[in-house]
Amino acid sequence: MAGSTATADPSDRHHHQGPAAVAFVGASHLNLLLLFGAIRRFELSPPGSPARGRARLAVWLLTATLTAAFTWKIGAMLPLGFAVAAWVMAAATVIGGFYMLFLHGEK
């Protein structure tokens, strides 16, 4: 995480792209930090506990928002057909994650 923060210096590379690019990088880093914390809480929670269920929900939500954010960012640079394909793949990833975390459970 420290390495990616060092390479994403807002005053360096993203400054010329405006505040939206800096906000995107900052939000992505915050999302990743929260995701790592949620994964850690999930791993430490006893199976079947309410804390594990809350951590599972947090992991899925953070992963879904990160997937959507990156798809939105690259979708803006792609031709329409490829952007649609990227969104379909992102949706499949989010739905597959939901299935594995909530419907398939801890079997």
UniProtKB/TrEMBL annotation:
<feature type="transmembrane region" description="Helical">
    <location>
        <begin position="80"/>
        <end position="102"/>
    </location>
</feature>
<keyword id="KW-1133">Transmembrane helix</keyword>
<keyword id="KW-0472">Membrane</keyword>
<feature type="transmembrane region" description="Helical">
    <location>
        <begin position="57"/>
        <end position="74"/>
    </location>
</feature>
<dbReference type="Pfam" id="PF20100">
    <property type="entry name" value="DUF6490"/>
</dbReference>
<feature type="transmembrane region" description="Helical">
    <location>
        <begin position="20"/>
        <end position="37"/>
    </location>
</feature>
<dbReference type="InterPro" id="IPR045501">
    <property type="entry name" value="DUF6490"/>
</dbReference>
<keyword id="KW-0812">Transmembrane</keyword>
<protein>
    <submittedName>
        <fullName>Uncharacterized protein</fullName>
    </submittedName>
</protein>
